[in-house]
């Protein structure tokens, strides 16, 4: 069980305000200050610095937060595991990004569920940014993402490598046949929301050539993959998507890939989980099992 002063520290880290932390913990602000001072004395380091009205973590504070937050998450999971062991059941909670959840993971997950009828399984959907926060908060045990993430704080396992391609309606007419990425800038772009792995990949590809989303004359931001696919079929714009997300539409000749000389992108779908978790080996085993059902 973590020291109650660590709980105070973690709360201050999330609120970045002593008063708000005190209100959330239902204690006084002086008590919050005393708890932080105790920890700074215990670890012989400064944990926070004040700049005007803003509070910031020091490097030592960031390190302590990372370690203690993971310990707290592991403790919660351990309690749940001990409780479930009495009933011979197991809980598993993981997250998948929208593209992967809708187009790449259903078959292996179905097999996994059938192989573990005793398990209680929670599958969370979200964009990469949301799932990284869920991992940090201990809401999920691991995530399967297509976007970028800070590799130094996660254990990783590549699920598959997928093509990332430009696409349009089968009968879409270009004013001039595009040969390079910049030739598409006069088109209306159908794009996912910020924080989405699919958008993140596109933004990075554009940045490499010193472009960004604003180079497209018009854009439509959509948070749902099925809607983007329907808009593509209806010739409402072009898009850049993982081939797995439009495989059926390509096979049915509803849309087509746009061949470009300077666009040949592949990216990994990756399992990630906290590097310092005491359950790391167990999580890796689960991820490998899911991969074996592909």
Fold and architecture overview:
Helix content is 43%, strand content 23%. It has 294 residues and is of the alpha/beta class. It folds into 3 domains: 4-73, Arc Repressor Mutant, subunit A (Orthogonal Bundle); 91-160 and 269-292, 3-Layer(aba) Sandwich (D-Maltodextrin-Binding Protein, domain 2), CATH 3.40.190; 161-266, 3-Layer(aba) Sandwich (D-Maltodextrin-Binding Protein, domain 2), CATH 3.40.190.10. The strands form 2 sheets. Strands 3, 4, 5, 6, 7, 8, 9, 10 and 11 form a 9-stranded mixed sheet that branches. The longest helix has 27 residues, at 59-85. The model has no long low-confidence stretch (mean pLDDT 91).
Average pLDDT: 91
CATH architecture of the largest domain: 3-Layer(aba) Sandwich
Low-confidence stretches: none
Q: SSE order in H/E notation? A: HHHEEHEHHEHEEEHEHEHEEH
Q: What general outline do the C-alpha atoms trace?
A: globular
Please identify the structural class as seen in this structure: alpha/beta
| Total beta strand runs | 11
Q: Termini distance?
A: 39 Å
CATH C-level of the largest domain: Alpha Beta
Q: How many structural domains can be distinguished in the coordinates?
A: 3
**Radius of gyration, CA atoms, in whole angstroms:** 23 Å
Number of helices: 11
Fraction of residues in helix? 40-55%
Please describe the biggest sheet, giving its number of strands, its sense, and whether it closes into a barrel: 9 strands, mixed
Amount of beta strand: 15-25%
CATH topology of the largest domain: D-Maltodextrin-Binding Protein, domain 2
């Amino acid at each position: 069980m973590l020291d109650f002063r660590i709980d105070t520290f973690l709360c201050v880290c999330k609120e970045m305000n002593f008063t708000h932390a005190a209100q959330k913990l239902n204690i006084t602000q002086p008590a919050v200050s005393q708890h932080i001072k105790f920890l700074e004395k215990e670890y012989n380091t400064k944990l926070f610095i004040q700049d005007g009205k803003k509070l910031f973590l020091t490097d030592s504070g960031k390190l302590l937060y990372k370690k203690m937050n993971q310990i707290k998450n592991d403790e919660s999971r351990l309690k749940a595991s001990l409780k479930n062991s009495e009933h011979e059941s197991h809980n598993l909670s993981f997250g998948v990004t929208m593209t992967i959840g809708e187009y790449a993971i259903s078959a292996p997950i179905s097999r996994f569920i059938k192989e573990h009828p005793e398990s209680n399984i929670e599958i969370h959907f979200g964009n990469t940014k949301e799932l990284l926060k869920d991992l940090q908060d201990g809401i999920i045990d691991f995530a399967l993402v297509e976007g970028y993430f800070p590799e130094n704080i996660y254990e990783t396992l590549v699920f598959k490598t997928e093509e990332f391609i430009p696409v349009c309606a089968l009968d879409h007419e270009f004013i001039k046949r595009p040969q390079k990425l910049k030739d598409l800038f006069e088109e209306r772009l159908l794009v996912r929301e910020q924080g989405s792995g699919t958008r993140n990949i596109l933004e990075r590809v554009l940045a490499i050539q010193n472009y960004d989303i604003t180079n497209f004359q018009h854009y439509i931001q959509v948070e749902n993959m099925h809607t983007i696919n329907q808009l593509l079929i209806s010739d409402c714009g072009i898009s850049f998507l993982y081939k797995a997300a439009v495989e059926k539409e390509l096979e049915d000749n509803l849309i087509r890939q746009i061949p470009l000389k300077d666009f040949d992108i592949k990216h990994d779908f990756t399992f990630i989980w906290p590097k310092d978790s005491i359950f790391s080996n167990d999580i890796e085993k689960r991820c490998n099992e899911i991969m074996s059902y592909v």
